[in-house]
Specification:
An 8-stranded parallel sheet has the order 18-17-16-13-12-11-24-21. Strands 3, 4, 7, 8, 9 and 10 form a 6-stranded antiparallel sheet that branches. A 6-stranded antiparallel sheet has the order 25-26-27-32-29-30, with helices on one face. Helix 6 packs parallel to helix 7, helix 9 packs antiparallel against helix 10 and helix 12 runs parallel beside helix 14. The longest helix has 18 residues. Strand 9 and strand 10 form a beta hairpin. The protein is an alpha+beta fold. The model has no long low-confidence stretch (mean pLDDT 94). This is Glycosyl hydrolase family 13 catalytic domain-containing protein. InterPro entries: A-amylase/branching_C (IPR006048), GH (IPR017853), GH13_cat_dom (IPR006047). Pfam families: Alpha-amylase (PF00128), Alpha-amylase_C (PF02806). It comes from Dictyobacter halimunensis.
């Protein structure tokens, strides 16, 4: 078993005699009997770039009979004049692997240096780090009363921390803005990438340490804590299909020629994790538990699950999801009372674009990325047409397209319980050009979407917030961010696309942001818009005129919402039966009107004619 207390680096408080640090690393198959030596090189961060201060080198001891071939050492760093050795603060470290030739007794360097695969903190240059305890105050969580929201109550916002607003503190600064969009869950793109050249983080190297330049341990905890205190869940985008080439369990074992305990062959995205190996499964499972317990995250978005799915009882993704679900039952934020009969609200979302329905049905996932809505929206934006399947089968009837509404899982006592599941619905994500780019592109050597066409995005936004499933926004879509993403090559992942916050204020962004804010409030306030009950007015909708209508309703409360979408350039009239008696009020522009736009229905299924503005829509609510 992997024990995080015997690997990684742990410093004790500095005192008048210096600093003591314990280092440990698992290197399965690499033993002292075969002549190997493992060294750790340690340097105080404050001395990092002084040429006359060199790292101190320490030899780790091989522990005979230890699981996973543990190497460890207790290091004492004495005070040294003219340096920061022995003082409190951050120490940088890296490992080196040598081997002794049994004939000549000469040592050769096998791996010049490698990072710590169990590092809890990091620094620049792919270095691991450890901080003496008195250098910072222990983090005090204030989210004791937090409960992860129900799936139906989520509005997700996917973002890259650096592109969104520099670092973890920058995201905290924007929490009021995110709440104004109705966001109740952040999906953070990978936060453990260490490379200084910008990339999306899908070349994982450190699985236990948040990116130091974004705020590190304290910064991520502050972000999660702040989000929870403002009613927002946080899930991490994690990469368990492949690793960076310099990942220790790839690099070292290629250098030694030994079989890696974790890595199989090289794949299209990098060296691939081999889940047939016990150590690989334990390592990934330990990482998930670490983020749940140490950082209070609410779940995970699993990258490239299509390649990790080996059946409902498989040892790859299915087992990860199952074990993580069971672990979450022990954590109070995932259940309302922590008693029997409750499912865990842990969010486990797969990226399984080739088989999303199957994987959602057959694993302990709660949700999945699926491209149906995005693909149809892009096609409609490009052609200026309306596809009936867009509303009927994608926006509304998820069951028709093969997604279950619930699945049977287990409660804390192992008894069966039904858990809601639903797909994520989105118009944009980090993998694709933004929707405005499919409406029109400005002619230039660097292509950008034509933001002057922002108004054509409005009916798509209304559809997103009134859909069945979980709406997800990609950073900046709410004010028509207009990047065009290359279809292949390094420019996809290594070109930083910062959010253009000036678009928030301009003539195109301002009205679109206001629409998103209104829609976010409506979805939050009206259960009908979050329900799993819908009806498409197929007879009344006129696809040829680009005008459609549908109904959303909440059976328990009796609340009804009628949604009208006009994708054409001109106003369109439509006749629709209003299902039950009462007062229906149009809510998208309710705050702007001097008088409410209301329809009084005196008998069931009474017909009314409405004129819907071009590239816009209505939402009529009857409470």
């Amino acid at each position: 078993m992997i024990n995080l207390r015997e690997v990684g680096a742990y410093a004790r408080p500095a005192n008048q005699d210096g600093v003591d640090i314990t280092f440990g690393i698992y290197l399965p198959g690499i033993t002292a009997q075969d002549g190997y030596e493992v060294h750790v090189q340690v340097l105080h961060k404050a001395d990092h770039f002084y040429e006359n201060v060199l790292p101190r080198d320490f030899l780790l001891r091989y522990r005979e009979g230890a699981a996973n071939d543990l190497w460890h050492v207790d290091v004492h760093l004495s005070l040294e004049e003219g340096t920061h050795f022995g003082l409190s603060g951050t120490y940088l470290y890296r490992y080196q692997l040598l081997q002794k030739d049994p004939a000549s007794e000469e040592k050769r360097v096998v791996t010049r240096w490698f990072t710590d695969p169990f590092a809890l903190a990091t620094d620049i240059g792919l270095l691991s780090s450890v901080v003496t305890p008195e250098s910072f105050s222990p983090f005090e969580w204030t989210d004791q009363d937090w409960k992860t929201p129900e799936l139906a109550d989520l509005v997700v916002y996917e973002l890259n921390v650096e592109e969104f607003n520099s670092n973890f503190a920058g995201v905290i600064e924007r929490i009021p803005y995110l709440k104004s969009l109705g966001v109740t869950c952040l999906e953070l793109m990978p936060i453990t990438s260490l490379k200084l050249n910008f990339n999306w983080g899908y070349e994982p190297l450190h699985y236990f340490a948040p990116y130091e330049r974004w705020g590190g341990i304290q910064g991520l905890k502050q972000l999660v804590n702040a989000c929870h205190n403002e009613g927002i869940a946080v899930i991490l985008d994690v990469v368990y299909q492949h690793v960076d080439a310099s990942f220790p369990y790839n690099l070292i074992y290629k250098d030694t020629g030994l079989e890696s305990p974790m890595i199989g062959g090289d794949g299209p995205f990098g060296p691939e994790i081999d889940f047939s190996k016990d150590f690989a499964r334990e390592y990934i499972q330990t990482a998930n538990y670490h983020w749940l317990h140490e950082y209070h995250v609410d779940g995970f978005r699993y990258d490239e699950v299509t390649d990790l799915y080996d059946g409902p009882m498989g040892i790859q993704y299915a087992q990860i999801a199952y074990n993580t679900y069971n672990e979450s039952l022990k954590i109070s934020r995932f259940t309302p009372t922590g008693k029997a009969g409750e499912y865990s609200r842990l969010i486990q979302c797969t990226e399984a674009q080739n088989r999303p329905q199957e994987i959602l049905k057959n694993t302990f996932s709660t949700s999945t990325w699926q491209d149906s809505l995005r693909c149809m929206a892009e096609g409609m934006a490009e052609t200026g047409t309306v596809d009936e399947h867009f509303v009927h089968h994608v926006v509304l009837d998820q069951n028709y397209t093969g997604y279950p509404y619930t699945k049977t899982v287990q409660d804390i006592e192992g008894q069966p319980v039904d858990m809601p599941v639903m797909p994520f619905q989105y118009l944009e994500n980090h993998d694709n050009s933004q929707l405005i780019s499919h409406v029109a592109i400005l002619p230039d050597d660097v292509p950008f979407g034509d933001r002057s066409q922002f108004y054509k995005l409005q009916p798509f936004a209304i559809a997103l917030y009134t859909c069945e499933g979980t709406p997800m926004l990609w950073q900046g879509q709410e004010f028509a961010q207009n990047y065009v993403l290359p279809t292949k090559g390094r420019a996809r992942v290594c070109y930083q696309r910062n959010i253009s916050w000036e678009y928030f204020y301009d003539e195109y962004g301002t009205p679109l942001v206001q629409l998103y804010r209104t829609l976010g409030s409506l979805r939050r306030d009206y259960a009908a818009l979050r329900s799993r009950e819908s009806f498409y007015y197929s007879a009344e909708s006129r696809i040829e005129d680009k005008i459609v209508a549908y109904r959303r309703h909440h059976g328990e409360s009796g609340q009804v919402a009628l949604v009208f979408l006009n994708f054409s350039d001109a106003p369109q009239k439509i006749d629709v039966p209003f299902p039950c008696t009462g007062t229906y009020r149009e809510m998208i522009d309710h705050q702007k009107r001097s008088e409410p736009y209301e329809i009084e229905v005196s008998e069931e299924n009474q017909m009314f004619e409405l004129e819907v503005p071009g590239h816009y829509g209505f939402i009529f609510i009857k409470e």
